[in-house]
Amino acid sequence: MASSSRDPRITDISDEAVRGTCDDASLCKRYAVNVGYWQDPYIEHFVRLPKERKAPEISRGYYARVQGVGHLLKAFLHKTQCNCQIINLGAGMDTLFWKLKDENLLPRKYFEVDFPSIVTRKIHTIKSKPPLSKPIMESHSGESLLIDAHSLDSSRYSIIGADLRDLPKLEENLKKCDMDPCLPTLLMAECVLIYMTHEHSTCLLKWVADMFRTAMFINYEQVNMADRFGQIMIENLQSRQCSLVGVEDCRSLDTQKARFLLNGWETANAADMVQVYRSLPPDDIKRIETLEFLDEKELLEQLMQHYCLCWATKDSSHLGLAEISL
Ligand SMILES: C[S@@+](CC[C@H](N)C(=O)[O-])C[C@H]1O[C@@H](n2cnc3c(N)ncnc32)[C@H](O)[C@@H]1O
């Protein structure tokens, strides 16, 4: 870990592998959408349908993740009556902006941040696909929309190319796109913090807590990583040059909560994905469990024990954010 931060060549290789995880996530989502787990008419523009079959365990896991994050996110939008902003950290090819617009649930402004090379790809795709660019134009008002290779800034949606480990630059870029520190703010990170060292992710969580008076953070990522199954997950990624340098915060639900409570947040909750799955509406579970045959549930259970949702709040405006639960 120490040597990777000293040797720029090693950092470059592992950053490249981290950027590659963006494609893994969108391929799995595209596959699950195609089987019918949930609807997303936008993901097909970002990624081709994979040729090989994905295991049903993977798709069910993604279903629980998308529904769990969506549930917490909608609770925040409800508490703030959409008078808020969302900052999606390490957003990759996420399609949430378009889905919220379709549901008439857009916040005042929706920001995405990812490495510049990922952002360049995303902007290129948006520019060349009218089903993606039209909703951005429709929600835009005022002066002309700013768009270049590394950023897009419209009145309701901004995409920023930045490294989450460089906080002064991140802050400068967000402010250039009219981020408002006084507005209730939801930050989301799905499988992102684990790719940053403990020091970097701690600084990020503290920076958010210092910046926003009223905020919620939704973090989805690995947990219970100290056991044998966790070890195998680490080794699998390491074999692709992708090291989980932030794994020490993913030891347990308690370590996931502690990183918030020790860094300026008032409340923190965490649930593994077994709990999240069980909290989903029974009719939804029944529907998705008929989509694909799952021989035995043990692997699904193990996988879901190794991912979690953690959400933290600070609420100077007394909006009742601490009441948000699964
Ligand atoms: C596993 S992907 C998840 C993408 C998206 N959140 C999703 O769930 O579909 C992780 C993303 O985090 C981004 N990321 C990781 N570390 C980052 C950093 N230091 N700065 C900016 N982006 C980062 C990667 O480029 C990648 O797009």
UniProtKB/TrEMBL annotation:
GO terms for molecular function: protein C-terminal leucine carboxyl O-methyltransferase activity. It comes from the Eukaryota. S-adenosyl-L-methionine binds at residues 65, 90, 163-164, 190. Its EC number is 2.1.1.233. Pfam families: LCM. GO terms for cellular component: cytosol. InterPro entries: LCMT1 (IPR016651), Ppm1/Ppm2/Tcmp (IPR007213), SAM-dependent_MTases_sf (IPR029063). Keywords: Methyltransferase, S-adenosyl-L-methionine, Transferase. It catalyses: [phosphatase 2A protein]-C-terminal L-leucine + S-adenosyl-L-methionine = [phosphatase 2A protein]-C-terminal L-leucine methyl ester + S-adenosyl-L-homocysteine. GO terms for biological process: methylation; negative regulation of protein-containing complex assembly; regulation of apoptotic process; regulation of glucose metabolic process; regulation of mitotic cell cycle spindle assembly checkpoint. Belongs to the methyltransferase superfamily. LCMT family. Methylates the carboxyl group of the C-terminal leucine residue of protein phosphatase 2A catalytic subunits to form alpha-leucine ester residues. This is Leucine carboxyl methyltransferase 1.
